[in-house]
Write the structure tokens for this entry.
Amino acid sequence: MTTSLTAAGPPFGSAGAARRARLAVSLVFAVHGAVGGTFASRIPWIKDHLHLSPGQLGLALVMPAIGSSLAMPLAGRVVHRFGGRAAVAGLLSLCCLALALPVLAPSLPVLCLFLLTFGATAGMSDVAMNAQGVEIEQRLGRSIMSGLHGMWSAGGLVAAGVAILAAHWDFDPRAQVGVTAFVLLALAQPVCGALPDLRAPEQTEAPPRFALPPRSSLVIGLVGFCAVFAEGASMDWSGVYLRDVTGASPTVAAAAYTAFSLTMAVSRLAGDAAIRRLGAVRAARLSGAIATAGGLLVVVADRPALAVPGFALIGVGVAVVVPLAFAAAGRTGGNPSQAIAGVATVTYTSGLIAPAIIGGLAQATSLTASFGVVTALTAALMLSAGALRRAEQRTPGNVTTPEPKKAFEKNTPAI
């Protein structure tokens, strides 16, 4: 039986150490989000460059999710062996390097291989940095996970903006992505170096090389599944919905995605205050109610003026649920990295299948009926929020390990 890092760790030795640790992990999330935003912004160019059909592009875009799902169970072993700081630094560096691969692919098979690699590095670094975030949150004794995921969203939005400017200036996408990957890699080194060096106690048994998700994380993962399904459906289909169902212009249709992304980013950045005030379970139930109201608005919308606010409300509603799911998973006992990997695997699967299910339902019935299913899943968040109760636990005051507090502070370098 493994022992979590949290059980062995004291609170921070000083306010300065706490601030440095929180800033460092926030910047790690921003760098990881920038990697994802850069890749997403160059998907249209990749499609045109390789002359891919919609079906071929869809096949290629499945590969990152498959790579992530296959590699994430390995992350617990990496974190245990090398420690949190080194694991995040190494895996995030590989993720930055892998960002440059897809735009260099000469054919669809090579693109699929490159995207499989990119997804594997992104997924493993995702698990490692979330485990680090959960550990720092527990030592601080207050919620920070929503803000960390907000930094991820903000990093993605900034990177996508840079890519849009590069496209406007006709900058070669291969050069732009290569330069971006190099800059992010350079930023990752000092940022990761400033993370606290969290390690499991020496007597802790190493997790398996390929660890299956524990059962406790699967229930929490189902809560994340509902949120990510609504997120993926809205991100991929909001523009089509506005155009085909409400008759919106292309400009207004594009505004639906922007409204969804911005409200999600802002809600995540502000979400920790709500979580501290309401608690994880009440915050998740309120989130489900807001997302359900947005879904109902989308379903009944016959004009863009109703649908755009509806998608914005869905973004607000699902914003904090996944951060809460990761926080709860990290407190389920055993190995936090393994539990987080389990939740991440379930949520990644949801993001993978959501767009396809929405498309299939729309083909069989209508887009309106498809978003009726999305609304039902957001309503399920209100009923299943109790699974996130572990995210309300506070462990810093219950630490019994006699390790001196200053030991953690001296392992937290300045940025």
